[in-house]
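hey m, so remember when u said the tokens were messed up on ur end? i reran from scratch. heres the input so u can diff it against urs
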Amino acid sequence: MFKVLSRVLLLVSLLSVNSIWAKGEEGARDAVVKVVAAFRDDIVQDKAFLSQNPSILEERVDRILAKVVNFDDFSRKVMGKYYRRATPEQRTRFATVTKDTLLRTYGASLLELDPDRINVKPLGPQGRGRETKVNVDFQMADGGLLNIIFYMEESKQQQWLLSNVVINNINFGLTFRKQFGVMMEQNRNDIEKAIGAWKASLAKKS
């Protein structure tokens, strides 16, 4: 009888853990749903106005992403092994340049989305890491398809934050890190010069 009761209690505890984990993963998807809804309502639906007012567009994108993106942490990951060598001022400037350029570049691309054809997919199989993958299909106004996988990670404050993004199978976190590493090599490991080259490189893409 004791063995049977123990097995039942173990089964109940495992089911409880799985339920909590599933709820946590759904929290990641809910965070992405809110961001996508904000993109649709605050940007795409107002693209006629925003296309003529780029500064307001950047402000709106910043306001939306500020809730789910820690740009200082994102910049730290991009700098990789060179982050510890950078001064606090260099880290701050690198984060600012990266943030401003990304807001300008990807804010403009949001205006090309079809607001009625954005699909946040149900959560699929997840890996063993701490990140939860949320898959979203964006239909472009010209008929093209943009697939974005948001990698979400729960902070100590139980807030879901974006840790990486893969767009049409391009891992942007990894790509940016490699690009900055190349710039460090090209500038003889001079962080100051590499940051200048990074700024110039991003400016060309915006």
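this time it looks ok to me. The radius of gyration is 20 Å. if urs says something different then somethings off w ur setup not the seq
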